[in-house]
Design goal:
Layout (H helix, E strand, L loop, with lengths): L8 E8 L6 E7 L22 H13 L48 H7 L6 H18 L3 H25 L3 H26 L6 H26 L19 E2 L2 E9 L7 E3 L2 E3 L2 E8 L4 H12 L6 E2 L2 E2 L3 E4 L30 E2 L8 E2 L22 E4 L13 E4 L19 E7 L12 E9 L4 E2 L4
Antiparallel strand pairs: 1-2, 3-17, 4-7, 4-16, 5-6, 7-15, 8-16, 9-10, 10-14, 11-12, 13-14, 13-15
């Protein structure tokens, strides 16, 4: 039994915002409500009947696909720090443009977490971005059985690598490393092309076609893995995302880190059901990005190192987000000495500033939303457009109320139409689930985080004493 009940939405009410004609979603809980940071407790009479389980997605689809997106709903509960899904990002952008709307043009939205992480790297090599776009397009063509297009894309990618290898090397910290990577990638084109050709010669839907496409996918994955290393080599030596001096007494992640998380069902013996397959435990791998969110990422990684999330229950799972990070006891977050700039919550929670990094800027801005800055709709470095995008939870009207609670967004393009974005610029996206994101569909309130482990990038975490 959880000592604290995280808000489970059971009724979504459409109200009219005080400014403009856009509706605002508010949520009420059938359980006894808890208290927001700095807010007065609510009475039990404010809770609502539990009929939301049936109508939630129908209501959400209608409301979210309409015109509510200009304003998120008002939280009435200290766990209700974030709760509206959205999308952003674009696959066809080779060079960041801060004036471009977050969803790009048309309806094609980049939902690939690893692609988004590549675009989030602080590099300035147009040629490698063109190669990235070409190789990623091949991936989508293979998945959709556009075999001729996939084969043509592999040829174009090979031509790019041969033509631009010198320009790749010029941007790398170690030119020899990049030269060897490109040579390996060039050699990897033939196995990919051969597998695609075999699939083209096979009957549609046959075992032979399936096996050939599997080989093509495996060969392509190796190319993308090498592309990751190639692009990471292009990050300038000693690069650090600029952070204002007033936040120097908070942990910072100067680069990236990888975290593995193991989750088990609340009831012993229960299994996770993912697309008809059962698993005794859920294992997820997450890349935490200190380039886009150095303070948010650093705060999370430090808490992982301290074991803060170990043995912690999942406290919200409602079809929009999976959320955790609220410890037992009266505090709503991690209790520790606070920074001089942001301070502590009313129960001693160490608070961190809201951190937003817009494409085209030299670094993040702090303690204010993108709308407050008069830049609503501009693209952030890491968009909330991937299933399993990780965001830092906070109170709706207090930019600096985040402490340790975070969420995974259960991105659903049917509920979040392109160009209608409410999370980017209001909450920091600080990473993505790159392996095991499908488990999120069956991680429920009460399930237990067995462990969260930092597997790489520990050297990039800089603590205030260092």
């Amino acid at each position: 039994m959880l000592s604290k009940q995280l808000l489970t939405p059971v009724l979504m009410l459409v109200t009219v915002a005080s400014v403009g004609a856009f509706p605002v979603l508010s949520t009420q809980s059938a359980t006894k409500p808890t208290t927001a940071l700095g807010a007065a407790p609510q009475s039990d009479s404010e809770s609502s009947p539990n009929w939301m389980a049936v109508g939630q997605k129908t209501l959400a689809s209608a409301f979210l696909a309409a015109s509510l997106w200009s304003s998120p709903f008002v939280p009435n509960n200290h766990h209700d720090l974030l709760l509206v899904s959205n999308q952003a990002g674009q696959i066809n952008s080779m060079v960041a443009n801060a004036k471009e709307m977050a969803s790009g043009t048309g309806s094609r939205v980049n939902k690939d977490a690893e692609s988004l992480l590549r675009y989030g790297l602080p590099i300035k090599n147009k040629e490698v971005r063109k190669l990235q776009l070409s190789l990623e397009t091949v991936k989508y063509d293979i998945a959709s059985k556009r075999k001729s297009a996939a084969l043509d894309g592999t040829k174009k990618s090979l031509e790019m690598m041969k033509k631009d290898v010198g320009k790749y090397k010029a941007s790398c910290r170690d030119g020899k490393v990049c030269e060897d990577l490109v040579a390996s990638m060039t050699a990897g084109i033939d196995p990919l092309s051969d597998a695609i050709k075999t699939s083209m010669d096979s009957l549609n839907g046959s075992d032979q076609e399936r096996a050939a496409l599997d080989k093509a996918y495996a060969a392509h994955t190796k190319l993308l893995d090498s592309l990751n290393i190639l692009e990471e080599q292009m990050v300038p030596a000693g690069y650090k995302t600029p952070v204002p001096e007033e936040y120097s007494d908070l942990p910072q992640l100067q680069g990236r880190a990888t975290v593995e998380m193991l989750v088990k069902k609340e009831k012993a013996g229960d299994t996770f059901d993912v697309n008809g397959l059962t698993f005794p435990e859920a294992k997820m791998t997450m890349v935490i990005d200190g380039y886009a969110a150095p303070i948010t990422g650093g705060n999370f990684v430090e808490l992982v190192q301290k074991g803060f999330y170990n043995k912690m229950a999942i406290q919200r799972s409602d079809g929009f987000v999976v959320q955790t990070g609220d410890p037992d006891g009266e505090a709503d977050g991690y209790v520790a000495p606070g920074s001089k700039a942001v301070g502590n919550g009313k129960h001693g929670e160490r608070l961190i500033p809201l951190e937003i990094f817009v494409q085209g800027d030299a670094g993040p801005f702090y303690e204010t939303t993108i709308e407050d800055e008069g830049r609503g709709g501009q693209a952030t470095i890491l968009p909330f457009s991937s299933y399993g995008a990780m965001g830092w939870a906070r109170e709706e009207y207090d930019a600096n109320s985040g402490s340790s609670q975070f969420f995974w967004l259960l991105f659903d393009s049917d509920l979040t139409p392109a160009g209608k974005n409410v999370l980017d610029g209001r909450y920091p996206c600080f990473g993505y689930v790159v392996e095991g994101s499908d488990f999120l569909q069956d991680i429920k309130e009460g399930d237990m985080i067995v462990s969260a482990t930092l597997t790489s990038g520990a050297e990039n975490l800089k603590l205030p004493s260092q």
